[in-house]
Amino acid sequence: MSGAAARARASLAGMALFDSPLLTPDYSLERRYGEGRRLVCGVDEAGRGPLLGPVVTAAVVLDPANIPDGLDDSKKLSAQVREALFLLIMETALAVALVAAPPALIDKLNIRGATLWAMARSVNGLARRAGIALIDGRDVPPGLCCPGVAIVAGDARSLSIAAASIVAKVTRDRMCAIIHCAFPDYGIARHKGYATAEHLAALQRQGVSPHHRFSFEPVARRATVG
Q1: 182-215: pLDDT as tens digits
Q2: Mean pLDDT of the region 46-65
Q3: Mind spelling out the 3-state secondary structure of the chain?
Q4: How high is the pLDDT of residue 14?
Q5: pTM confidence score
Q6: Span between the terminal Cα atoms of the chain, in Å
Q7: Spatial CA neighbour of 116 closest among 57, 40, 183, 38
Q8: What is the pLDDT of residue 37?
Q9: Number of neighbours of residue 174 by Cβ within 10 angstroms
Q10: Alpha carbons 86 and 100: distance in angstroms, whole number
Q11: Which of the chain's ends, N or C, has fewer CB atoms near its CB within 10 Å?
Q12: Measured between alpha carbons, how far is residue 89 from residues 113, 145, 208 in Å?
């Protein structure tokens, strides 16, 4: 284990990992669909709803003998916990792949199409080919290199999907921090592109940026006004 991963594991010991005990992911879906023979990857996205920035997808193949403690739906975890778990996932997973679909592609395909496009490329880009993909949500992306299974609320049920949700979320948040450096007046580092009051006010004041999604209504309306 690297020094960074060791520090991340140690830091998690003092943190509250779960906001809700109602549903905690486990490895049972991986055992069921992997049948003890196939590599199983979990797939999730971050950033379907924002008005700005990419939608990011991740595919993760966990090592069943070395799964980090505390994996859960990224939305239930604090940013500090997500960052620590991100390091552990990257250190211990058998394979991780990330794809970002930019705003131009979202505008071309719509958000659902761009998300499925990115999910398929995440799975197909894994350094170790998965035997089956567990996909968060209701859709199996077309073009997968392996069979896929859609799992509703998968990030709360599957450890592999939970890991993918964390990797996608942390990566997108870091991308938003970079965008914020170029366009600080929008407050992107705080709202991550979501339609908060701060963001909508900045959109009216500053107009649209190259990172906005022109097919999303508040952005389209402001772009028309000029």
Answers
A1: 999 999 999 999 999 999 999 999 999 999 999 9
A2: 98
A3: CCHHHHHHHHHHCCCCCCCCCCCCCECHHHHHHHCCCCCEEEEEEECCCCCECCEEEEEEECCCCCCCCCCCCHHHCCHHHHHHHHHHHHHHCCEEEEEEECHHHHHHHCHHHHHHHHHHHHHHCCCCCCCEEEEECCCCCCCCCCCEEEECCHHHCEHHHHHHHHHHHHHHHHHHHHHHHHCHHHCHHHHCCCCCHHHHHHHHHHCCCCCECCCCHHHHHHHHHC
A4: 47
A5: 0.90
A6: 53
A7: 57
A8: 80
A9: 12
A10: 17
A11: C
A12: 27, 23, 36
Q: At what angle do helices 197-206 and 217-225 cross, to 10 degrees?
A: 20
Short-list 170, 173, 146, CA closest to 61: 146
The two tokens of residue 75 are 């939305």
Residue 121 neighbours by CB under 8 Å, 6+ apart: 57, 97, 99
Q: Which two tokens stand for residue 49?
A: 């709803």
Angstrom distance (rounded) from CA 113 to CA 119 = 10
- pLDDT at position 193 is 98
Task: Write the pLDDT tens digit of every residue in 88-111.
Answer: 999 999 999 999 999 999 999 999
- Which tokens sit at 95? 């394979």
* Residue 166 contacts residue 74 (beta carbons within 8 Å): yes
Token pair in block for residue 194: 């979501």
215: how many CB neighbours lie within 10 A of its CB? 15
- Could you tell me which of 49, 75, 69, 97 has the C-alpha nearest to residue 156? 75
